Amino acid sequence: MKKVNIYINSDINSAKKTNGKYIYILELITDKEPITLTGSDKLIEASKNDAYTIALAKALSRLKSECELAIFLENEYVFNAIEHYLEGWKERGWKNSKNEDVKNAEIWQQIAETLEKYKFTLYLHEKHEYKDWMERQLSKV
Fold it and tell me: For 72-123, how does the pLDDT look when each residue is reduced to its tens digit (9 = 90+)?
């Protein structure tokens, strides 16, 4: 089975809404060299959590065939949402434990639907070979 790594980063480091960018890399592992596909975008009035949620949804939307996923994140909220909260949100009709609407529910629904199709592993704050490159890309004006 194919193996794909997804790496996500953002220059938005605040819970407060601000302008910034996100970047992701999809890396297909092959017998020779890995094949990569990148994506990035600017965000207006977004929080760090928004940036990572949007970036993950965009990266997942580019998957076209069955594969095993490894997802590398720098965001505790998205990591915990997938690991601990996503199933409960779905069961409660996209409400959180306080019976409030989940923020970015449409994006989370898209993420949940996509992840159901794949075997995946999440990694939080793991070092990887693309991290420095991604940070340089985010710092470009």
Answer: 999 999 999 999 999 999 999 999 989 999 999 999 999 999 999 999 999 9
Q: In 14-130, which ranges are continuous DSSP H helix? A: 48-61, 76-80, 86-91, 105-115
Q: Which residues contact 138 (CB under 8 A, 6 or more apart)?
A: 9, 10, 11, 21, 22, 23, 40
Which residues touch 6 (CB under 8 Å, ≥6 apart)?
A: 24, 25, 26, 27, 56, 59, 60, 69, 70, 71, 72
Among candidates 120, 92, 119, which has minimal Cα distance to 105?
A: 92
Single-letter residue type at 14: S
d(CA 21, CA 10): 6
Structure tokens at 62: 């580019």
124: burial class by Cβ within 10 Å (0-12, 13-18, 19+)? middle
Q: What does DSSP assign to residue 84? A: I
